[in-house]
Amino acid sequence: MRDSVGVKEYLRVHGVDNVIDLSYEELKQEYEKTIRENISYYYSLFDTENHDSEFLESILNTKKRDVIDVLKQVQTIDEVYEVLYEFLHVYSPTDLVAFMAELKMPVSYTKLQKIIAIVYARVQDEILDSLKSDLENLPSQERETLIAHYEKMKNDITYLTKLHTKYQSPETLDYLRLTAETKLNIMQEFLSKDLETEYKPFYDNTKEKRTLVAKILEISGIYSKSELLDMKIADLQVTYDEIMQQVLQREREQKLMRRYIEIFEDSAGITEEEFKSHCNEMQAKLSQDTVGEIISHFTTLNHFIANKINNVLSGKSMNKQMSPSALMGDT
């Protein structure tokens, strides 16, 4: 938090009374509350879900009867594409299928559904590309976050088209840009710990986060990609470091396990004391699970060596929680 004098002045300007009497904790809580309210206000300036009545009126002038009259004139597949492209800016694919079901079209019903899906995808891509172009001068954090929001609304072509129309005004875009810059500055200065949450689509697409997610997925199947994307970059780094430490430890144990297997396989030429020494060393350096793997290996291939190892460990590990028989999986 900034110096208390600056904070008190900020709160006073934004309508908070009796700032002089507030304790440090009260001042901090009131400050964060006011900042968040301002963030919400700035974000609401981008929300234009309330369709302008003039825009809606122009859209709704295209009545079902008019659509059917136009569709009746369609003779070729090319004309089908052209008409669908026009009307899919107004009607949903389901509506158009219902309209066309009443008519005899130059294509089958099944093919018509596929054509509508193709044309509708084109309409969605075009309007989203237009919005991306409209917002190119916004801070990248806000631009990518807004575009991700619009992509979730790609089935509402009417809304997105209206939004694109609104963004044709240079004054509107300048206002939005300044608003986005103000919001970002507030976030960076006062709520930096919340940046990744507020601008999640932007941070999800950063090279640092994508690299960490890819590395974790490559070395572990514990987390799904969506679970990893929900983590912050700092948490991902900690998770990666922990998993890598486990992987490296496992690699070291596997290397030692192979070494001890080779030693015991060639144990015919060593003394009993040397054999015991190797067993005790193995038990000290390896986890119980890895020791169990070695015993299981010899239980399958050379039961005599497995028994020798168990005999040594039973003599040295009488007070341990896991007995040699447990290591062998006996009950």
Structural write-up:
This protein has 19 helices and no strands. The protein is mostly helical and 331 residues long. It is flat and about 100 Å long. 18% of the residues are buried. The C terminus is likely disordered.
Put the structure in a nutshell.
By secondary structure, this protein is mainly alpha-helical.
What's the helix count? 19
Q: How many extended strands?
A: 0
Rg to the nearest angstrom? Answer: 34 Å
- Can you write the helix and strand succession as a string? HHHHHHHHHHHHHHHHHHH
Low-confidence stretches: 317-331
> Please, what is the average pLDDT?
82
| Gross geometry | flat
Largest sheet: none
Helix content: over 70%
Output the structural class: mainly alpha
Furnish the topology, listing elements before pairings:
Layout: H1 4-13, H2 24-44, H3 53-60, H4 64-72, H5 77-87, H6 93-101, H7 109-134, H8 140-152, H9 157-166, H10 170-190, H11 195-198, H12 200-204, H13 207-219, H14 225-229, H15 233-265, H16 272-285, H17 288-301, H18 303-316, H19 324-327
